[in-house]
Amino acid sequence: MAHNIIMPKAGMAMEEGTVVRWLKKVGDTISKGEAIAVIETDKVTMDLEAEYDGTLLSIVHGDGEVVTATHTIAWIGAAGEKIPTAGEPSANAPQLPAAESRGQVAKSAGDRPAVPVTDRAVAATPAARAYATEAGIALSSVAGSGPRGAVRLRDLQEAKVIKATPLARKVAELNGIDLGGLASPASGGKIRKADVVARMAATVPGTSIPITGMRRIIADKMLRSHQQVPAVTLTTRVDTTDLVALRERMNAGGATKVSYTDFIIRAAAAALREHPLVNSVIEGESIVLQADINIGIAVALETGLIVPVVKKADELGVRQIAAVTRDLAERARTGSLSPDEYTGGTFTITNLGMYGITEFTPIINVPESAILGVGAIEEAFRTAAGGEIESRKVMSLCLTHDHRSIDGAPAAAFLGRIKAFLEDCYSLVG
Q: Does the annotation count 71 as an active-site position?
């Protein structure tokens, strides 16, 4: 019996996903658990694994297609098996007659990704042509070292070329967009149409960018938070003079570099342990205190925003937090986080200090009850006990809290504990 392969629903908010590329072709033998395609959700890019053994009978949605979550994208079963009519492939999906076995794939245009017209006239070895098609490299952009200038596989591997889908190249060519610097982390370094459109928005007046994928999820979630949550923001100034000195000493003698955000996570986790009401979420008509302290860190991407989560942050030291946050941030930017790594947060921290922002009003990451905004460290002057003027390092912390679950006084007390921990920063590493 043939089994359908669906676009997985990676999280409750996911409504659709994109087939980035198929790793298998129709007619290939598939083993259960084997990666058969790369898909992109609103947050990450990940491998899609087969749930059955068998032969890939049909690809319903080809590379680059956007598919509603849980809808069929392919069929797997016994070689030659007939699939249901509802699973017939779309017009641009590569197909193989069921009677053909593996190793006898028809070499028609429908059986492989589109190849730029200019590349068809370029002399190249079969291995080089297959590699270029998979990687999205224009053969015409590489100097060949083979007979009569034919492009070899090693020419592609050694050349510093721009990887892009054929559609992305076409859109860029029609609109005069330079593909340089447009590598999309979420697509494994390969430029896609969405990356070109985003660049057009910054360079071509009047460009319309559809609110889809990650951008739509962010828009819907922020609008819901703004409309439904009675949010209040409290701001305090923290003397970080000792913290700046401590961080410099730790980074001078440690392999894992520690950021200010890592210290703030440690301080917030300690404060949340003392103020469990802040570490809560609203579910329907109930305020649910969370057993674990899971702190989300807002990470900016070219295509939007993602919040990977440091699980059980209160059980980690500053250097451990630094190692975890660095790993999460790097994989967030390459689109390789698993759904478990960006869900389950109970409190969020967003730091705009590196952009020179001193104060701002962060929007709560619902259903959480609070979010902490971190500003830039500035120089300030104060009068010392002896009357001398001294220079200090100060930073603003902005706590937005949901007034349905947290009143102003407990929110202020919680923010005050974070301030106290940071000003007594040595207690965070003791």
A: no
Catalytic hit among 71, 220, 292, 403 = 403
- Torsion angle, CA of 227/229/232/238, rounded to 10 degrees? -110
Q: Token digits for 333?
A: 């930017």
Kindly report the number of other CB atoms within 10 A of residue 32's CB atom.
Answer: 11
Per-residue model confidence as pLDDT tens digits over 86-129: 444 444 444 433 333 333 333 333 333 444 444 556 788 877 78
| Number of domains making up the chain | 3
Residue 105, in any domain of the structure: yes
111 among known catalytic residues: no
Evaluate if residue 133 carries a pLDDT over 90: no
Residues 412 and 299 both lie in one domain? yes
pTM exceeding the 0.85 threshold for the entire prediction: no
The region of weakest confidence among 124-128, 288-292, 378-382 is: 124-128
The CATH number linked to 235 is 3.30.559.10
The SS3 assignment for 249 reads helix
Among the options 178, 292, 340, 407, which is catalytic? Answer: 407
Same domain, 257 and 172: no
Share of the chain above pLDDT 90, in %: 42
* Nearest-angstrom CA–CA distance, 151 and 166: 19
